[in-house]
Amino acid sequence: QVQVVESGGGLVQPGGSLRLSCVVSGTVFRILAMGWSRQAPGKQRELVASITSGGSTNYADFVKGRFTISRDIGKNTLYLQMNSLKPEDTAVYYCSSADWWGQGTQVTVSS
After folding, report:
1. What are phi and psi of 31, to 5 degrees?
2. What is the three-class DSSP state of 2?
3. Three-class SS state of 1
4. What is the pLDDT of residues 69-102, one digit of tens each?
5. Which of these, 103, 78, 109, lies nearest to 91 by C-alpha position?
6. Measured distance CA(30)–CA(32) in Å, rounded
7. What's the N-to-C CA distance of the chain in angstroms?
8. Is 1 a residue whose pLDDT tops 90?
9. Are 57 and 50 in contact (CB under 8 A)?
10. Which of 2, 38, 60, 88 could crosslink 26 through cysteines, CB 3.0-4.6 Å?
């Protein structure tokens, strides 16, 4: 059974940074394609960034140059480094793979 624990969300001022973490157990982490998505109140969930099993990354246009997805295979952990945060980045952020989703972590960008 896959277990997923997300952390790192919180309240940050515009222009600030946060790093989200997603620890995955119960599966073969290194072969997974994974991603981070987000959902703001009243809006549909949208893909933010993804990483293939080979390590190739892809980003939504609205986060390019600001967010970085990465992983530590030895720690079974997926990361999302978020810089230059904007109020419109406020959302619940989820890590996921083909067969599972994390519980989500709230990111609020506000002064």
Report:
1. -100, 5
2. coil
3. coil
4. 999 999 999 999 999 999 999 999 999 998 899 9
5. 109
6. 6
7. 40
8. no
9. yes
10. 2
Q: Which helix (H) or strand (E) holds 92?
A: strand 91-96
3-state secondary structure of 75: helix
**Four-residue CA torsion sign, 33, 57, 16, 38:** negative
Instruction: Look up residue 21 and give its two tokens.
Output: 């973490």
Q: CB-based contacts of 64: which residues, under 8 Å, 6+ apart?
A: none
Burial (Cβ within 10 Å: 0-12, 13-18, ≥19) of residue 22: buried
Instruction: Look at residues 27, 31, 23 and name the one whose alpha carbon lies nearest to residue 51.
Output: 31
pLDDT digits (tens, 9 = 90+) for 4-39: 999 999 999 999 999 999 999 888 877 889 999 999
* Closest listed residue to residue 24, CA positions, set 8, 5, 38: 5
